Amino acid sequence: MLVQLEEAEGNRLRMTELARRVVISKSGLTRLVDRMVEAGLVTRCPDDADRRGRWVEMTPAGFERLRDAAPRHLRGVRQYFTSELDEPSAGVLAHVLGRIAAKAAAELAARESRRGR
């Protein structure tokens, strides 16, 4: 979630967009954001253009946590994942994971639509 916020314009996203990007239900995201607000990593901000909407914005502590975690995370990805892939395998894996992510996003959107959200 912190990576998504760090990459977003203004380091903030609407709750619905953040849920879509991390492929999690809105209720699951609400619980996650609650925990991250409590930890001081993000804040919720009102959306001046839509009084019903809320932004989730990364705090300086969130940036620090992301910066501190990045080297360890990337080391693990390299050690246990990418070092095992040659270029053709990486292309196949990227294609398959893209299809899986698209299917998960579509199913999440359909579920949210059925709930009337």
Describe this structure in words.
There is one protein chain. This protein is mainly α and 117 residues long. It has a domain at 2-69: Orthogonal Bundle (Arc Repressor Mutant, subunit A). Helices cover 65% and strands 11% of the residues. Strands 1-3-2 form a 3-stranded antiparallel sheet. A hairpin with a 7-residue loop joins strand 2 (42-46) and strand 3. Helix 2 crosses helix 3. The radius of gyration is 17 Å and the shape is flat.
Sequence-ordered SSE layout with sheet pairings:
Blueprint: H1 2-7, E1 12-14, H2 15-22, H3 26-38, E2 42-46, E3 54-58, H4 60-80, H5 87-114
Antiparallel strand pairs: 1-3, 2-3
Helix pairs in contact: 2-3
Structure described in brief:
The chain is mainly alpha-helical. The chain has helices spanning 2-7, 15-22, 26-38, 60-80, 87-114; strands spanning 12-14, 42-46, 54-58.
List keywords for this structure.
117 residues; mainly alpha; Arc Repressor Mutant, subunit A; three-stranded antiparallel sheet; 5 helices; 3 strands
